[in-house]
Design brief:
The protein is mostly beta strands. It contains 2 helices and 8 strands.
Amino acid sequence: MRKFVVVSGTLAALAGTAHARPASTGWFAEGGLGAVAFLTKASKDAKPGLAIDLRLGRDLFSWLSVGISLAASSHEATVPPPPNGEWFQLYRGGADARVTLSFERIAVFAEGGLGLAMISSNILEKVRITDPGERRTVAFEAGAGLQYQLENRHYAVGVGADGFVLPQFRSIKGIDARIYLRYTY
């Protein structure tokens, strides 16, 4: 029994308390997978679709980062026939900024940005969401999320949701929700 107490005490003293390593700051890349759903009238004319997101940027401070974001989603058009079974893709890209508040391994953030969006098809002309020949628009985006810092200080996982407005496409509004993996160099 005495040996057990001595060995246990020695191991406890050597182990000490484990402290979480601070998250890395600097250049980063995020890759996400999620879905885009449209709001208001556009939700009747297009189903929610699978989306991929990519964000590259730099942490200026531990609480502020800037970057570029790229996103693509694919949607089934649900406009009145004919035609049936038509699909279109929505591509978005722009510059953004993120403000983060960290609590050890958990961080909450708010983000916003400005960019461009492009639609791949003219199928939404039928329901007057896009005008003839109109394929590009300015895009405004704002959102929030939650991030968890993994044991390796370079990696984090998170969830985020951004609302966006595409003013020239009859002010299409939508939500892009995603899970992501972040790597900071």
